[in-house]
């Protein structure tokens, strides 16, 4: 869980304001300097927190990060209130005009009342900031542990279990075997590298394992090696050497060898024999390039298969470009039903009374095997299998709050969250923002980018690119990482809109709620009352159905402090805002 979400943007904005403020208030220059330095320390600490999944964080660290996040929100309110005073300026206007705004602010500070109000607010925040800084030192947050490496792909453990029951991958397996086996004698002698790419949970590892076990041709060496996120390349290469030749490398002390020496050993070993190697779960180009150096083209017809979630990684981890990239596809409706029913009932037959609800559940899984097997495992519990009301409870929770306590759902979310934690911090914020949209919602590319800009999520490092160009880059990166589903593609390949997979939406809604980033109010699903202080409110379905309990004591004075109020499918929203 990224506890820093929502705070980083606030800290960046406030830090810039404070640095400019040196010119405006000489009397508080010393305090402001201290303020700015502490902000930089917090920003660095939050950056570390953001890289570590929630279940790996100490409870004290979580509480500290929560306080910092709420403090950063209050900071942002103070800064934006100040900017709004400057001739009605939009606090999220083009960041390149920032210095012009700061010049105008000089006039505001000359007004006694405004100066006193802002001074009081800054003083209160400064006291709170000193408190969280003291706790930062007390909890030794500067030495946070790095995120643990995933040494094996957990998907292989969760998926089918029994390899005899592989469903829906036979054709893909046969197509890959044909592709890496075909060719004339000359082309067969060259090294072939095929990459399997797709969204987490589609079965890339399972498919690669199927090809690995099914390819009938004999090889001098075979190895299946997992890389995973945050790899230790010395361990990866040592593991590769051990699997290629256990006898020769069983006693090898990799600690005494560096990466370059391990690459040389691998090249020497593979120089004269045909080999077949699977490099599973690659996350970045540098890891791919390093491993590729160890795998020599020996002219013996060797084969390498890589798996990855990222399109750009697949392009450099394959030969002949697109021809040797296998894009994973979701399971068909028929295969989805077979997988789902077998896990719950032990056969492909579904009792008539469960057919309608099961089809609705499968529609939300959109053919992703991980989602299908995880939800089926949840329903396979003896207490739930024959209770149709439990099936509908599950159906209504998909996309907005799957059962947190179920082990199968936890495993699924842990696997999907790997892609989230691999995002750079600026993309995490932008991706988390998608939780403001309802399930099955078509999100306009241009509208989304403008919203990111208005929220100050776009980080401007220099003036060579505009905010819109940077927003385009952010959007394309999410598509490339298979985090969002591209729709409405033009003939030139430009994606005009996107949507979020329901299962992934459920994950980011959970993350958003925990850090008070987006609050969703869905009347149909009976959401509880609003939090006292919400930052972004997404109101879904009809507002005429909102109850007093759900709205609690919410008033427009509270809503004024929110960063965004998103109304979807709300024909009565104008009347509600008029009344409040």
TrEMBL record:
Residues 188-345 form the NB-ARC domain. GO terms for biological process: defense response to bacterium; innate immune response-activating signaling pathway; plant-type hypersensitive response. Residues 11-92 form the Disease resistance N-terminal domain. Coiled coil: none annotated. InterPro entries: Apaf_helical (IPR042197), NB-ARC (IPR002182), P-loop_NTPase (IPR027417), RX-like_CC (IPR038005), Rx_N (IPR041118), WH-like_DNA-bd_sf (IPR036388), WHD_DRP (IPR058922). Keywords: Leucine-rich repeat, Nucleotide-binding, Plant defense, Repeat. GO terms for molecular function: ADP binding. The keyword Repeat applies. Residues 436-508 form the Disease resistance protein winged helix domain. SUPFAM superfamilies: P-loop containing nucleoside triphosphate hydrolases (SSF52540). PANTHER family: AAA+ ATPASE DOMAIN-CONTAINING PROTEIN, TRANSLOCASE OF INNER MITOCHONDRIAL MEMBRANE 13 HOMOLOG. Belongs to the disease resistance NB-LRR family. This is Uncharacterized protein. The lineage of its organism: Eukaryota, Viridiplantae, Streptophyta, Embryophyta, Tracheophyta.
């Amino acid at each position: 869980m990224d506890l820093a979400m929502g705070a980083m943007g606030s800290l960046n904005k406030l830090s810039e304001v404070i640095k400019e403020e040196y010119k405006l208030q000489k009397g508080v220059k010393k305090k402001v300097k201290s303020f700015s330095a502490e902000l930089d320390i917090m920003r660095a600490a939050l950056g570390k927190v953001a890289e570590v999944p929630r279940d790996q964080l100490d409870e004290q660290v979580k509480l500290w990060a929560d306080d910092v996040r709420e403090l950063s929100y209050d900071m942002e309110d103070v800064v934006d209130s100040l900017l709004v005073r400057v001739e009605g300026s939009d606090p999220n206007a083009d960041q390149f005009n920032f210095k012009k705004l700061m010049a105008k602010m000089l006039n505001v500070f000359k007004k006694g009342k405004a100066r006193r109000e802002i001074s009081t607010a800054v003083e209160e925040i400064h006291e709170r900031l000193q408190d969280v800084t003291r706790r930062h030192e007390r909890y030794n947050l500067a030495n946070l542990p790095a995120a643990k490496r995933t040494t094996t792909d957990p998907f292989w453990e969760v998926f089918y279990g029994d390899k005899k029951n592989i469903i829906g991958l036979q054709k893909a397996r046969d197509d890959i075997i044909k592709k890496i086996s075909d060719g004339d004698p000359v082309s067969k002698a060259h090294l072939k590298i095929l990459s399997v790419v797709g969204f987490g949970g589609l079965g890339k590892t399972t498919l690669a394992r199927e090809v690995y076990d099914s390819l009938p041709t004999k090889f001098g060496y075979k190895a299946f090696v997992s890389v995973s996120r945050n790899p230790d390349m010395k361990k990866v290469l040592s593991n590769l050497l051990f699997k290629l030749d256990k006898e020769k490398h069983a006693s090898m002390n990799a600690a005494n060898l560096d990466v370059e020496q391990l690459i040389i050993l691998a090249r020497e070993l593979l120089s004269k024999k045909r080999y077949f190697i699977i490099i599973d779960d690659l996350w970045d180009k540098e890891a791919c390039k390093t491993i590729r150096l160890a795998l020599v083209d020996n002219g013996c017809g060797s084969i390498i298969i890589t798996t990855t979630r990222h399109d750009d990684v697949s392009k450099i981890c394959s030969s002949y470009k697109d021809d040797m990239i296998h894009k994973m596809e979701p399971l068909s409706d028929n295969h989805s039903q077979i997988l789902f029913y077998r896990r719950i009932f032990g056969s492909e037959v579904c009792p008539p009374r469960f057919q309608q609800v099961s089809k609705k559940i499968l529609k939300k899984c959109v053919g992703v095997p991980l989602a299908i097997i995880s939800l089926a495992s949840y329903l396979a519990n003896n207490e739930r299998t024959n209770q149709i009301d439990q099936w509908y409870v599950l159906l209504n929770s998909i996309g907005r709050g799957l059962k947190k306590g179920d082990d199968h759902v936890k495993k699924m979310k842990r696997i999907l969250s790997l892609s989230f934690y691999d995002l750079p911090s600026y993309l995490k914020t932008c991706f988390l923002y998608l939780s403001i949209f309802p399930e099955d919602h078509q999100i306009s590319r241009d509208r989304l980018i403008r919203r990111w800009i208005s929220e100050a999520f776009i980080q401007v490092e220099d003036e060579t690119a505009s905010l819109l160009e940077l927003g385009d880059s952010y959007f394309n990166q999410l598509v490339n990482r298979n985090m969002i589903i591209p729709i409405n593609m033009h003939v030139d390949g430009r994606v005009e809109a996107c949507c979020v997979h329901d299962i992934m939406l459920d994950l980011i809604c959970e993350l958003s709620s925990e850090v008070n980033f987006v609050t969703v109010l869905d009347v149909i699903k009976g959401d509880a009352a609003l939090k006292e202080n919400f930052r972004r409110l997404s109101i879904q379905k009809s507002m005429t159905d909102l109850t007093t309990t759900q709205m609690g004591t919410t008033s427009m004075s509270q809503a004024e402090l929110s960063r965004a109020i998103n109304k979807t499918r709300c024909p009565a929203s104008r009347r509600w805002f008029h009344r409040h």
